[in-house]
Write a structure and sequence with these properties.
Low-confidence stretches: none
Number of strands: 11
Strand order of the largest sheet: 9-8-7-5-3-2-1-11-10
Largest sheet: 9 strands, parallel
Shape: globular
Strand content: 5-15%
CATH superfamily: Glycosidases
CATH topology: TIM Barrel
Number of domains: 1
Order of helices and strands: EHHEHHEHEHEEHEHEHEEHE
Helix content: 25-40%
CATH class: Alpha Beta
Structural class: alpha/beta
């Protein structure tokens, strides 16, 4: 799979959506990741999930014909992936503060560095909401459900965050794997594949990286592991590479190689997210054709099941993409 990301705002904007659809028509791209529940908790179409309606999850923009879009993509042979952000959900946490991570200082929902509230991963009643949204997306025809932010918070005033249970590596892992097992059961009848986004550092860390993600526990529960292998995200470097943005090939190669090795033979495929945006952590260098192609080649050389381009503004380096050669 060679995928491009279409954000909550992007999919509802005719101009941005049209540009991405054009890329799918004329380049090697053959898959698209669409926000079905985005970073703030907004859903881009009219959902029938009762809690989505109650919480006001249909936000400021709206895709008026999602079924038509999916039919169009299906007719072109494009593989459709629904991105469902799970615990980073400002909408739900504000609507149900009893389900939220709480700030010990204020008693209000805790917020991360973006000022966004999170749902407490230990609250199993809250699991059902994201699972219902995912099930609805699968029934609409999305071929894959990709859970993002299926983890505990990793930034912000973490010491001020209070959960409904004590947080240890064991309890965090139990919460994340418990959610995935329940989601897999709910999605079985839909036929949709199941994927999960991972911190890139999970490929290198043998603990849960403090967020409840460990490759060995997650690999048996999903069809695809999706490490976020952005060189800019490795602010502490990786072994042998202190400046990751200067070595995009090596970063993606090692992330995929180590993730595959730890997942084990016959387990989940590995399909990384790669960086198509300006560096934000080191020297602000742009990522252009050379950097994109290096990451794509690294994913191939490490045995990945393709790659996915990430740009939060949906602005992609077209020159890095090969031409469409499959008749789509």
């Amino acid at each position: 799979m060679k995928a491009v990301y279409l954000s909550y705002f992007g999919v509802a904007d005719p101009g941005i959506r049209g540009q991405v659809l054009d890329l799918l028509n004329r380049t090697e791209l053959n898959a698209v990741v669409i926000d079905v529940k985005g970073d703030r908790g907004f859903i881009p179409y009219e959902s029938r999930v009762p809690l989505a309606v109650e919480a006001g999850a249909m936000g400021p923009v709206r895709l008026h014909d999602p079924d038509g879009l999916l039919a169009q993509l299906r007719a072109k042979g494009v593989y459709t992936i629904a991105r469902v952000v799970v615990f980073k959900d400002h909408v739900l946490a504000r609507r149900r503060p009893d389900w939220a991570v709480i700030d010990v200082g204020t008693g209000a929902p805790w917020v991360d560095n973006e000022g966004l509230a999170w749902v407490d991963p230990f609250v199993e009643k809250a699991w059902e909401y994201s699972i219902a949204v995912a099930q609805e997306a699968a029934e609409k025809g999305f071929r894959e459900i990709q859970f993002d932010y299926l983890r505990f918070p990793g930034d912000g005033r973490l010491g001020a965050a209070r959960y409904s249970k004590p947080t240890t590596q064991e309890t965090r892992l139990q919460a994340i794997t418990g959610f995935l097992k329940r989601a897999a059961e709910a999605l079985t009848s839909t036929g949709a594949s199941l994927a999960v986004d991972l911190f890139g550092y999970t490929a290198f860390n043998f603990d849960d990286t403090g967020v409840g993600q460990r490759v060995e526990e997650l690999a048996p529960l999903v069809d695809c592991l999706c490490p976020m292998a952005y060189p800019s995200a490795y602010h502490r470097g990786i072994p042998g590479v202190p400046n990751p943005v200067a070595h995009p090939y090596e970063v993606v190669l090692e992330t995929v190689r180590r993730t595959r090795e730890r997942a084990g033979p016959g387990a989940a495929h590995v399909r990384p997210w790669i960086q198509d945006f300006r560096d934000y952590a080191f020297d602000r260098r742009p990522f252009g054709v050379a950097e994109l192609r290096a990451q794509m080649q690294a994913a191939h050389d490490a045995g990945a099941a393709g790659w996915m381009l990430w740009n939060p503004r949906n602005r992609y380096t077209v020159e890095a993409l090969g031409a469409n050669s499959d008749g789509r």
